[in-house]
TrEMBL record:
This is Thioredoxin.
Length: 39
């Protein structure tokens, strides 16, 4: 299932660098957020 909607993708010109084969996903939302803990 593809949940992407227009406007969610950044291209190389927006990032200021060429896109590579790998990426890191960082998500900052949760229904159960708690204060960050040291790991």
């Amino acid at each position: 299932m593809d949940r992407r909607t227009p406007g969610q993708r950044l291209d190389a010109s927006q990032l200021g660098a060429e896109l590579g084969e790998r990426a890191t996903l960082v998500q900052f939302s949760s229904a159960f957020c708690q204060p960050c803990r040291a790991t």
